[in-house]
Amino acid sequence: MAKKINRYTFSDISTSSSYIVKNFVIANSNDTISDISLDHPFSFNGVVLIICRKGSDRIRINYKEYTVDESTIITILPNQVVERFDYSKDLFVDFLAFSFEFISDFVLPKDFNIPQRIANQPVLKISEEDLTNLLKYRSFIIETFNNKRYKYFEQTLKGQLFSLMTVIASLYAELGSESKAKASSRNEEIVEQFLLLLKEHHKTERTATFYADKMCLTSKYLSTTLKKVTGRSINSWIEDASVLSAKILLKSTNLTVLQISEEMNYPSSSYFGRFFKKSTGMTPVEYRES
């Protein structure tokens, strides 16, 4: 049976990259990362920054789907659920990961509200000029790793990471000022509220009526709004969230299929099995062993 790891920590990382210290790693598509599979939904207990330099990818972060291509940055916050699929053969990315502990001594600006903006829009398209600038900061970090003889190596590393993240924060700050009107629209607010409720209740509640009632809306109005803003039906959102949680339970726990079906409030294990196979093309047992 495949190793049941879906909730990763820094202790799980074993990589061919030479650029790794405690609670911090920097690598790219050429580096081999052992013991971690990205072929199934996963979460990580640190911050992950990915810079796409070539190719394309499609990912879901906390049930929301995004398209990634050249000159795109992805910022994944701790414990967000990520699923990637349908990526091109020429995909090439740089990435770095760090824990909050690693940056605990950073002094942030008083108006620093970037984590919330990142949570709302983790995938950000940037200009070629901004991409080149970010890669320069990355090269500074690589150069520091290549000169570990520095007495204050870790402090230098942290300073350069802080500079890089400050630049990214500035890009998000610019985004916030440009899209303020859009973000405050009623339809966008409805979508965000629905996604928060879905995250909280999707394991046991799978009807449009439940979410509409929670939001004091009619099912028809909520369904129409979701379709208009996201291009997807409410049933599609609910089904994907349920399947994603089932995948995580199958890969990261020893619960039986019956126990998972009960935890997720399905009428029976056979009903759950039919639903799962219809959505994924595999039975729960086949998925667990894949």
UniProtKB/TrEMBL annotation:
Keyword terms of this UniProt record: DNA-binding, Transcription, Transcription regulation
Residue stretches making up the HTH araC/xylS-type domain: 192-290
GO MF terms held by the record: DNA-binding transcription factor activity; sequence-specific DNA binding
Pfam assignment, any one: HTH_18
Matches recorded under SUPFAM superfamilies: Homeodomain-like
InterPro entries attached to this UniProt entry: Homeodomain-like_sf (IPR009057), HTH_AraC (IPR018060), Tscrpt_reg_AraC-type_HTH (IPR020449)
Protein name (record): AraC-type DNA-binding protein
